[in-house]
Amino acid sequence: MEGRGVEPVSSPLTTHVLDTASGSPARSPCLRLSRLEDHGQQWTELGNSYTDPNGRCPGLLPPGHMKVGTYKLFFDTEGSWRKRGQESFYPYVEVVFTITNETHEVHVPLLLSPWSYTTYRGS
Fold it and tell me: Were 21 and a residue from 38, 68, 89, 113 both cysteine, which residue would form a disulfide, CB within 3.0 to 4.6 Å?
């Protein structure tokens, strides 16, 4: 569509960060995606990004780049809360998960407040 810019690339791995204290998307937390390599000895960073105004991170992992293995999403929660003038108990959140089928889409939401967080396998 004209005037709307480039559409984000579809990613087989997505995340969505929600601020449960305010009931709204968590805007702009920095996040990094890594995969465990070298027979479980070293994390390799695959990319970094920020969430959009809807709390989503489009294009986290390009199509065709997902492999079976162990992955980690690192969320800079302290930096995000600090931008809003809010203290936070958790300086960061790391969510480690396993992908067992590279043809399936994987959604890893993070529900976040300054004093707690939870995550789950989304759809």
Answer: 113
3-class DSSP string for the chain: CCCCCCCCCCCCEEEEEEECCCCEECCCCEEEEEEEECCCCEEEEEEEEECCCCCECCCCCCCCCCCCEEEEEEECHHHHHHHCCCCCCCCCEEEEEEECCCCCCEEEEEEEECCEEEECCEC
Distance CA 11, CA 28 (A): 19
Tell me, yes or no, if the pTM score tops 0.70.
yes
Beta-bridged to residue 51, according to DSSP, are: none
Mean pLDDT along residues 1-26: 74
The pair of three-digit structure tokens given for residue 89, joined into one six-digit string: 């108990």
Q: What confidence score (pLDDT) does residue 40 get?
A: 76
